[in-house]
Amino acid sequence: MKFFIDTANLKDIQEAVELGVLDGVTTNPSLMAKEGIKGTDAVMAHYKQICELVDGDVSAEVIATDYEGIIREGEALAELHPNIVVKVPMIRDGVKAIRYFTDKGIKTNCTLIFSAGQALLAAKAGATYVSPFVGRLDDIGADGMQLIQQIVDIFSNYGYPTQVLAASVRHIPHLIQCAELGADVVTCPLNVITGLLNHPLTDKGLATFLADHKKVNS
Ligand code: E4P
Fold first, then answer.
1. What are the residue ranges of helices labelled H in 54-143?
2. DSSP string spanning 34-46?
3. Which of 35, 93, 150, 213 stands 20 to 30 A from 72 (CA)?
4. In the UniProt entry, which residues are flagged as the active site (predicted)?
5. pLDDT per residue over 177-202, tens digit each?
6. d(CA 124, CA 44)
7. Third-level CATH fold of 2-217
8. Given the CA of residue 187, which atom of ligand 1 is nearest to it?
C-alpha cells in the first residue's frame, strides 16, 4: 500500500519524507489556500517545490470546470515536473479531459468520488487514480469503507489498472480498514501517518528494557 500525505504544507511533507515511508502527495485548492498560496505564479512555484521534496506522484488540482480550461490548466501543470498528476473533478467535462490526458500519457487523479458508478466511469476514461472521499461520506452518515470495498472489487473484476486512492482519510482506523480492503493508496494528514508509531505497550516495554539494562550497567 502506498502512503500519500494530504497537505500543501512543506514542513509536514519534509517530515514525512524523513520518516522514509512517503510515496506521494495530494493537494487540493482548500489545502493550498490554507497555506496562503495565491496567484498562478505562486501556486505553480509551490507545486514545483513539493515535487522537488518528494520522489513520487504529486496531485495538483485544476480550478477550471470546462473542458478547454481543464485541458489548458492540466497541460501547464503537467509541464511543471514529471511527478505531477493532474487532479480533475468528477464532472462531465472532467471525464472527457481525463480521456484526453490519458491518451497524451499525462497521469490523472479523478477527485470527489462518492459512488462506485463515478469510480467506474473514471476508470473507463483511463484515470491513473480515483479518489473516493471516505471521511466526507462518514460525515453525512454514509459508509465510506463500503465504497472502498465496492471500488476495489469492481476494479479487480475487470483488471482495471486505475488505482484506488482512498482520500479524506481522517484517522488510524480509516487507514487500517483501507489497507484491509486492499486500497492501493491512502492519503491523509501527517498526524495519521505518525500516529501509526504509537502503542502504550511499546512505550511501557521500552521503558522496562532500558531500566533493566541500566540496573546491571551502572
Ligand atoms: C483528497 O485528495 C482530498 O484532498 C482530501 O483527502 C480531502 O479530505 P477532507 O475531507 O478531510 O478535506
1. 67-80, 92-103, 116-124, 134-139
2. HTT--SHHHHHHH
3. 35
4. 87
5. 999 999 999 999 999 999 999 999 99
6. 29
7. TIM Barrel (3.20.20)
8. 6
Q: Which of 87, 96, 107, 214 is catalytic?
A: 87
Q: Residue 215 catalytic?
A: no
**Residue with the three cell numbers 502512503:** 3
pLDDT, position 218? 86
User: What percentage of the chain exceeds 90 in pLDDT?
Assistant: 100
Q: Is the CB of 171 under 6 A from ligand 1?
A: no
Backbone φ and ψ of 110, nearest 5°: -85, 115
Q: How far is the CA of 188 from the centre of ligand 1 (A)?
A: 8
Q: For the chain, which residues make up each domain, given as ranges?
A: 2-217
Q: What is the pLDDT of residues 78-87, one digit of tens each?
A: 999 999 999 9
Q: Tell which residue, 58, 61, 8, has the closest CA to residue 35.
A: 8
What's the CA-to-centroid distance between 132 and ligand 1, angstroms? 9
Question: How many C-beta atoms surround the C-beta of residue 62 within 10 A?
Answer: 22
pTM metric for this prediction: 0.96
Average pLDDT over residues 116-142: 98
Tens digits of residue pLDDT in 11-49: 999 999 999 999 999 999 999 999 999 999 999 999 999
Using alpha carbons, select from 57, 61, 48 the residue that is nearest to residue 10.
Answer: 48
**Which atom of ligand 1 is the closest one to the Cα of 109?**
2
Instruction: Say yes or no: CB of residue 134 within 6 Å of ligand 1.
Output: no
